[in-house]
UniProtKB/TrEMBL annotation:
Protein name, entry field: Rho GTPase-activating protein 26
Domain SH3, chain residue ranges per copy: 611-669
Ion transport recorded as keyword: no
Keyword Cytoplasm included in the entry's annotation: yes
This protein's GO CC annotations: cytoskeleton; cytosol; endosome membrane; focal adhesion
Length: 669
């Protein structure tokens, strides 16, 4: 298992679990730094100590064998596996040193240590310093008497807010830097190693034979490094963009917690004749009404006590005139005597705790509404143009083309052969169309299944699973996907002219066709597997577009309740791209006039046809968890099955009762 992804939203909670995950990254950086120092030392010995060449070779190889790359996420791509195989090369590949070995190996490694790892260490010092400062200021602030002047209290509140904001910004920057160095070392460290090894092979007295054996691996590794670098650049920009969003609107990007409420609270504990306030990290589950407290201080960096938990009986706001502390509320427990007085971190924090625990103060709930965006699409010839789909068109021209093509009145008059429309304008319009769909073309419903398929160890199994999943997509989505993939396969066949290989097209279209429903660091780290899915679709497009595979090849769907959970949290509209307007041009550009006419006629019949009144058979068993759903076993036949207003669900009749059925659980008869 690799290193866990560090979510920016966790910087605001600053939980014990987040600190532990951050600590694992820090230990890995320390390990990497120590290893590189040893590697540089051994490399110099290898170059300078001709008399002890044999010993230096063995030590250098041993150092490499002891080190293993730790990738962020729960799986590695083929490219990362290929890169990870380099350190296990044996000592017999090291011949006499080359003249410029220091420039090839030592200097890049020293530069990586100084520019990257040292920067991460400085960020760590700054983070630790800000942690102590914030905790100290917060404790001092919370100790202020409520009887102070209002102006004095207001000034103190502003000061704490400024310190807290600065701490959050430093925390975000530190998390970003730590993960950047972890990813960057995959190529900044391996690339000089690869160059150094290649130089050694060249000057070895058996260099020809060794280089011949190494050549295939070197080619694969070079491609893997380039692919990893490309994915890093794409991932880094996404992570950096997410970090900026977190800085600008931290409250809009907080993670969805599995708990009803969690965070730090100060609990009043009475001992003898005095009372003290002790800091706990508390979590509250609304369903069992269970509160769990862990004694923890971020300044010390670890737990200092056992977990305590109790069942909530009541929660009451504490009036300011009854206690000198601010932001307090009283909690009574079913299985614990007495009343516990707790202090929140601010008035807003107390409001949220009170709302979660059904306290006396009524609190409103601010929801959110998803904006619906217009959808459009298009493409073009110019198959040999270099950088096809990578070079971006002028935004104003792209929007004009989309506007004309989306309008039924002007769609037929758009002539893409006209010199007014550059190739980059047309390709940018296609990407923009796919990007602004309410959901990705390959749907949120199957996004995780496609990623899971790309992580399979066996290449044939990957193709088989992805083939099956493509045929589980809604008909219009699958039809549009097949159009696009066939076109991209044609583009890839001309890669010697347009420089757009299958891997390059995967980088361009992976994040668009399989974008996640929630933007997190972990999701961004899966972009490389999104790219792999698109690569497989292009490389095996003839098989994927072939006959529908048997049902047993399909990846098992999730729990029956999962679509409902997604529906309630993210009320998205159905994601079936329109096959008219821009789509008509999209089809005509990818195919000959005869093929396009046939396909458009078939598409029209799909649009006007209705599935009302059809029968369907259940592929899997499902137990209803809501009154609106149907329970059934595998093989059940449903009557009058038709589309539901709920995305990802159908409506059908079973034994005289009509209810919802998960769309991915049935096949139409």
């Amino acid at each position: 298992m690799g290193l866990p992804a560090l979510e920016f939203s966790d910087c605001y909670l600053d939980s014990p679990q987040f600190r532990e995950r951050l600590k694992s990254h820090e230990l890995e950086l320390d390990k990497t730094n120590k290893f590189i120092k040893e590697l540089i030392k051994d490399g110099k010995a290898l170059i300078l100590a001709l008399k002890s060449l044999s010993t230096a070779k063995r030590k250098f190889a041993d150092s490499l064998n002891e080190f293993k790359f730790q990738c962020i996420g729960d799986a590695e791509t083929d490219d990362e596996i290929c890169i990870g195989e380099l350190p296990v090369m044996k000592s017999n590949i090291f011949p006499r040193p080359i003249e410029n070995a220091s420039d090839v190996l030592i200097m890049p490694l020293e530069r990586f240590r100084k520019e990257q790892i040292s920067a991460a260490k400085e960020a760590r010092k700054k983070y630790d310093k800000e942690t102590e400062k914030y905790c100290a200021v917060l404790e001092k602030h919370l100790s202020l008497s409520a009887k102070k002047k209002e102006s004095h209290l207001h000034e103190a509140d502003n000061q704490v807010d400024n310190v807290r904001q600065h701490f959050y910004e430093v925390s975000l920057e530190y998390v970003f830097k730590v993960q950047e160095v972890q990813e960057r070392k995959m190529f900044d460290f391996v690339e000089p190693l690869l160059a150094f090894l290649q130089g050694l092979f060249t000057y070895y007295h058996h260099g020809y034979e060794l280089a011949k054996d190494f050549n295939h691996f070197k080619t694969d590794l070079t491609i893997s490094i380039q692919n990893t670098r490309n994915r890093f650049e794409s991932t880094r920009s996404e992570v950096e963009s997410l970090m900026r969003k977190m800085k600008e609107n931290p409250h809009e990007h907080k993670s969805v917690s599995q708990h009803t409420m969690e965070g730090y609270l100060f609990v009043q504990e009475k001992r003898s004749f005095v009372s003290t306030w002790v800091k706990y990290y508390c979590t509250y589950h609304r369903e069992p009404k269970r509160i769990t407290m862990v004694l923890f201080d971020p300044k010390s960096g670890g737990k200092t006590g056992e977990e305590e938990s109790f069942t909530l009986k009541s929660c009451t706001r504490r009036k300011t005139d009854s206690i000198e502390k601010r932001f307090c509320f009283d909690v009574e427990a079913v299985d614990r005597p007495g009343v516990m007085t707790m202090q929140a971190l601010s008035e807003e924090d107390r409001r949220l705790w009170m709302e979660a625990m059904d306290g006396r103060e009524p609190v409103g709930y601010q929801g959110y509404q998803l904006e619906h965006v217009k959808r459009g699409n298009l493409s073009s010839p110019g198959i040999d143009d270099q950088g096809l789909y990578r070079i971006v068109g002028v935004n104003s021209r792209v929007q004009k083309l989309l506007g004309l093509a989306m309008d039924p009145k002007t769609c037929a008059d758009v002539e893409l052969e006209n010199s007014e429309w550059e190739i980059k304008t047309i390709t940018s319009a296609i990407k923009h169309y796919l990007r602004v769909l309410p959901g990705p073309l390959m749907t949120y419903q199957y996004q995780r299944s496609f990623i899971k398929a790309a992580k399979l160890d066996n290449q044939e199994a990957r193709v088989t699973e992805i083939h099956a999943l493509v045929h589980r997509l809604p008909e219009k989505n699958r039809q549009m996907l097949e159009l696009l993939i066939k076109h991209l396969a044609t583009v890839a066949n001309h890669h010697q002219q347009n420089l757009m290989t299958i891997a390059n097209l995967g980088v361009v279209f992976g994040p668009t066709l399989l974008r996640p429903q929630e933007e997190t660091v972990a999701a961004i780290m899966d972009i490389k597997f999104q790219n792999i899915v698109v690569e497989i679709l292009i490389e095996h497009h003839e098989k994927v577009r072939g006959n529908r595979p048997p049902p047993h090849h399909v990846l098992p769907p999730g729990r029956c309740s999962q679509p409902h959970q997604v529906r309630r949290q993210h009320p998205l509209p159905p994601v079936t791209p329109p096959l008219s307007g821009l789509s008509t041009l999209f089809v005509c550009l990818f195919f000959s006039p005869e093929s396009a006419q046939n396909l458009l006629s078939h598409s029209h019949s799909l649009i006007v046809s209705s599935i009302a009144g059809r029968k369907a058979r259940a592929l899997y068993a499902c137990k209803a968890e809501h009154n609106s759903e149907l329970s059934f076993i595998a093989g059940t036949i449903f009557e009058n099955v038709h589309a539901s207003r709920e995305p990802g669900w159908l409506e059908g009749t079973l034994d005289g009762r009509t209810g919802l059925i998960p769309e991915n659980y049935v096949d139409f008869l």
